[in-house]
Write a structure and sequence with these properties.
Blueprint lengths: L3 H10 L13 H9 L5 H10 L8 E5 L2 E6 L9 H17 L10
Antiparallel strand pairs: 1-2
Helix pairs in contact: 3-4
Length: about 110
């Protein structure tokens, strides 16, 4: 069973280690995502279509008029969350500034 204090720390701080020795096993993938440049319209559109604007896992399940269950957004548990959101933002910026596209339907 997962220690609840570790789980709370992950929810609060992400997947960063709290110990003095830390190694990030996804660091190469983080760097690759951060360095990925948007160069054409098709690439920017594909990124905006694939990466959702909101967490698709957040739900409120209601029975009748009362709130029964609320499932919190789980995207922040993804160790690459910030990099993926940044990539989507760069793609939206490319579409809005470099190409005369309306980006409202991607939001």
């Amino acid at each position: 069973m997962l220690n609840s204090s570790i789980f709370r720390s992950v929810l609060k701080n992400g997947w960063q280690s709290t110990s003095s020795f830390s190694w990030d096993i996804v660091k190469p993938l983080r760097q690759w995502l951060n360095q990925l440049a948007i160069h054409n319209l098709a690439q920017a559109r594909l990124i905006c279509q694939i990466i959702p604007a909101q967490c698709p896992f957040e739900r409120e399940i209601c029975l009748g008029n009362r709130l029964s269950i609320k499932i919190p957004p789980l995207c922040k548990l993804n160790p690459l969350y910030e990099e993926v959101v940044g990539l989507r933002f760069r793609a939206l910026t490319y579409l809005a500034e470099e190409c005369p596209n309306d980006v409202r339907h991607y939001c």
